[in-house]
Write the structure tokens for this entry.
Amino acid sequence: QQPVQSPQAVILREGEDAVINCSSSKALYSVHWYRQKHGEAPVFLMILLKGGEQKGHEKISASFNEKKQQSSLYLTASQLSYSGTYFCGTEARGTSYGKLTFGQGTILTVHP
Amino acid sequence: EAGVVQSPRYKIIEKKQPVAFWCNPISGHNTLYWYLQNLGQGPELLIRYENEEAVDDSQLPKDRFSAERLKGVDSTLKIQPAELGDSAVYLCASSLDRETGRTEAFFGQGTRLTVV
């Protein structure tokens, strides 16, 4: 069962902040975040393990609440280059290692 | 360091024809994935390899899809015969293994398949 992302889409102006949420019905071992631009491959942003927080980029960070089986991606002072579709991928406990199940994606559009 | 390389980038075939996709993972990556991505959706796992072994192929439609990873490096995904509903982007990804603690997947550009 795939994780649920919210919102489905968000529109920002440069410099504004955004939060993208990812929620799973299963206990999680890890959460991975990716960004995909139109016609391109998904690009890895960061991974969160066991409730820890790993900051992958300067203005993009994330948190992982193990108890609630949720993760949030925080984009601060957004730039035009942040535009794209963001996917969370979850690795559920009890499944085979490395099996990522992706959410449906959140489309982020940043305008000048 | 070269990334994950896939070919071809685009493929248009008639239904009932066979098609094959090729993937060269990042050097040293033990784990290789094939994903299917429909328009507006997240990637869906088809098959995952640990070296030469397919460790998770539960979502691979085995009546028409097959895959192989000879010598634990390159991989080929085949569809025979193709159906209209197979039109999608087929993504290959690779990662190191859990022992190294580096499990993030690196994706190739994908092959966009159109079945007409």
Notes: Chain B is about 0% helix and 45% strand. Chain B has a mean pLDDT of 92.
